[in-house]
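hi!! sorry for the late reply, been swamped w classes. u asked for the two structures so here they r. pasted raw, havent cleaned anything up. first the sequence of the first protein and right below it the tokens
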Amino acid sequence: MEHSLYWENNYLPTCFVEMANEWMILKSYKIKKSTLNKYRYLFNNYIYPQFHTVRIEDINTLTIDRNMYLIYEKYKDILSYSTLKSIIYLIKAVIMYAIKKQYISRIYINFEMAEHTIQREINVLNEEQEKKLVAEVMAKKTANHLGILLSLYTGIRLGEVCSLKVSDIDFVFKAIYVTKTVQRLSDFSTNTTNLVITNPKSRHSIRTIPLPDFLYDILISYGIKNFPENSYILNNKEQPYEPRTLQYAFQRIMKRCGCFGFHFHCLRHTFATKCIRSGFDIKTLSEILGHSNVSFTMSRYVHSDMDIKRKQMNILNENWEFANIFIS
């Protein structure tokens, strides 16, 4: 980590930053490089600036709560829910590690309350916005447009769609196999970044997604069948498609549509929400999204709006015998 010392067996940390460094070094042997890079980035950019003056003897409930609150207030309108949650996880992990190593006394911090505080509404495209987006991307065949359509109608993640090869397409059963993801990872030793193919987010992310007929026909219309089997479907090359290119293209398209405040991942949220409204079985949807369990799908990606709530409440109207009680 950039803002800390290296850990040796006979070394005792004197501050929060040094404890975090020790935890990070030990953690590096157990986690993926992409996860480690994410942790380093979050620590260096968001945690270190707030905690770099906190010494071991100053660590208590009030100090940790206050610094977490200051991070939240500073970045609540800038960072995503998942990023803020990851920052809280890192702070929690370092504190728990320090207690286990007896660097500090056991203290009580309500991390669940902190996570609850940062939760906010996830952006989902409404029907009008979706129509504008689809009209825009269907007007011309480009790699970016295909990537957007695949994400909007399968819920596939940005890195997953950029890593799809022709060999990942089942032209007989009309399905795609999600087995990898592509990420641009930082190399802190050279201060550069590299495009890297890695395993998906989790073992549950390795999945098969059947394609609806209309989406399969769109895919075929891009000439994918004529591409070499080892090429990536978005660029017909042997190198993966750059996720940032797709992200930037999405932002430009949304701007032309007059839609602001959306990021690429909202396509995944929109897909999940539309599936629920269409009556999808939750277990099936959870597997298509690559989630570890149904409860995560419900809590993270299913968003109930007023129209859905009203429709559900009006089911009571169908029970005339019940409703008749209130009619004089």
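now the second protein. again sequence first, tokens right under
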Amino acid sequence: ACSSIRGAMRWPAALCLWLLPLSANSWAAPRAARPRGLASVGAKEDRWADDPVAVENRRRAEANRLKQVSASTRRREQLLEVSRRLREKKRREKRERSLGENPKPLQQRERDPERRLEKLAVDAWLDGQVTRLVDHGAWVDVGAQVDGFVHISALSDGFVSSPYDALSVGENVNVRVDSVELSLHRLRLSMLERVVDEEEVVRQHGGERRVLEDISEEEQLWGIVTRVTHFGAFLDVGASREGFLHVSEYPLREMGQWAPDLFHRGQRLRAYVKEVDLELSRLKLTGDRPKSLPKIPWRLPLKTL
């Protein structure tokens, strides 16, 4: 019995000794020599490559897969291409309109020594020629060192949706000097009469206009509308800069109304200082009365003014 048990125990040990070299050789083999399945797959593909029916079936399957996957991608690319062409068309039309019907460059006007920036007087009327149109205004050559700019809100007494509808390149116009900034070499023009009496404004503020540094936030100001845009109105409040009142800051505005429906040149309004930007030299106004002040009607009757 003991001898038979010893014989049975010898067999597993002998089997392990026989399998050990085989497993060691298999793991020691290079990685490229182990996967035999790839060779069989490659051979199968080579065998299918000779079959025209199999090749056609594979081609159709790949085409159907790409068609299903890239349908949305192709649709998106088509939309992008259409939008790109529309943008190019708009830019081309805008360039043609800005250059006018005759794309040849305009003859530059002779520079008049009497029309140097330092000699131009505010509110003086000059004759000029439109040289270029942009979305927000027009550039006019008046014979000075630089062309003057007329903002879209200063083209007409009424609302102008686009400068291209009011002016054309090469047109002779009569403009008024609105302001001259020698430090910035900038000339600002207007085609409208001034609605504010400059002498009266100066007299009310002690001989000169107020600088922005002397204006504080939430201060109450009375002003006269000088320009009206689609989104708001510019008010002359006696400061060195005009204040801008956005249409959304006007408490009497109803749904769907814009600035041309609410404001007109020469209108007298009461506003409050919302923000004073000294860096950009801007004055933002609001019609909402600050909570720190007592509540009163936003606009008084004309007989009380």
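hope this helps!! also noticed smth abt the second:
Helices lie at 2-28, 36-49, 52-69, 71-99, 163-166, 198-204, 259-262.
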